[in-house]
Amino acid sequence: MEPTQRSDADATQTELVPIRKDDYRLEQLDEELLLYHPNGEKIVYLNQTGSLIWGLCDGNHNTEQIIDLLSQAFPESADAIPSDVKTTLKAFKEAGCIEVKPKSNP
Amino acid sequence: MKTHRLCFAGTILAIASEGEGPDRIIDFLFSDIPRTDLDPPHVTFRLIQENKTGEFRLYRENKLERRTQSQTAMIAYLLDRTVYHLANHSRTGLVFHGAALAWKGRGILLPGRSGSGKTTLAAWLLTHGFDYLTDEMTFIPLDTTQLQGLARPLNVKKGSQGVLKEMLDADILPKEMVSDGTRTIAPPRAFGPYRVLRSVPLRLILFPHFSSQNDFQMVGHTKGENALHLMGCLINARNLPDHGFSEVVRLARTIPAYSAKYGQIDQVGDAIIKTMNTIVERGEVGPTIRTA
Question: What is d(CA B101, CA B9) in angstroms, rounded to the nearest whole number?
Fold first, then answer.
């Protein structure tokens, strides 16, 4: 039996993307963000880079795409960006302010 | 029986004392804290001293809460419990764990948990011309930047007693202080001539970090860092809308903040005086400044 070839549609359906949780409140202070959960248990501080990554957790960008976008925007920091993005997304997940879900088809 | 109604941070705490010993304790602890005629109190204590045994007994809402032969132990217990209950019922502003003093009418807030060095720093500033608000509990009413402090005696832990000995007024020692080996409780008058202020405009926030190993470093906080650290020192968050987050952010946007690591108290004390003089000269709230 020949192995089943996955179609592009199949690959998209299983692609995982980070999505911000709606119940976090955002407060912007200059270039920084504070994420606050109404139950008062968590506050997450984001510097400028963290704020950009948060903004890209919109359900439309996977990790690699976030890295690519930031690397294009900040080429001088391209070496550090992959590690920064992965660390930040991990921190978001541990803080409970994002979910990682399959990207929904349009 | 005398009843004293203390008012702080929108909370009324009533404490009745019966007898010379209890009266002395109440006077020692609360003589600099404003009284009120408002009723009803949020919390009621009663302090008595047994005639036969000399034992001190503290009742809260008519239930026995603490009994001890030691005047010092009762003073220390009441010192802590009043802070707890005043904060626990406060809903009209931000209650921060921190010291507060004033320089030429401008307030400085020193937020920090136990062991951060804020009481020792408060005592040093007191002996260098600052006016006293508190060494432990501060209050900022909602929608204001007015700084208030619970003007209780300073609670000096064992590790700082050597440093503070040099600051204390020898003419006042030792009768004005109490000590139990783990801490010394000293009213502000033990440090020499002083003024207690009720409320001053807040102009500076400084987070002290003492360690004998530290080299001196004073660094300006961004507004976001300021808000994050202030939230960590907020002790009545659960009583406030959105846990006080909006109010803390408002404060963080407005008041400049620094973090100071130090091993020698003179270093940070001198830096504070210099910064406060700059603020006074400017006549307004200044921007956050980074120094190292």
Answer: 17
**CB-based burial, A31-59: b 16+ in 10 Å, e otherwise:** ebbbbbbeebeebbbbeebbbbbbebbee
Tokens for B124, please give them. Answer: 């040093």
Q: What pTM does this model have? A: 0.86
Nearest to A43 among B228, B238, B253 (CB): B228
Please give the ipTM for the structure prediction. Answer: 0.70
C-alpha to C-alpha distance for B206 and B138, rounded to whole angstroms? 14
Distance, in Å, from the CA atom of B164 to the CA atom of B177, rounded to the nearest integer, reads 12
- Nearest CB among B228, B243, B246 relative to A45 is that of B228
Distance CA(A28)–CA(B223), nearest Å, equals 10
Nearest Cα of chain B lies from the Cα of A29 at a distance, in angstroms, of 6
| Rounded Cα gap, residues B192 and B154, in angstroms | 13
Helix (H, G, I), strand (E, B) or coil at B51: coil
Q: Do B222 and A30 touch (CB under 8 A)?
A: yes
Cβ A30–B224 below 8 Å, yes or no? Answer: yes
Residue A90 CB partners (closer than 8 Å, separation 6+)? none
Which of B222, B237, B245 comes nearest A32 by C-beta?
Answer: B222
Render pLDDT for B8-36 as a digit per residue (tens, 0 to 9).
999 999 999 999 999 999 999 999 898 89
**Residues in chain B whose beta carbon is closer than 8 A to a beta carbon of chain A?**
222-225, 227-228, 231, 237-238, 242-243, 245-246, 249, 252-253
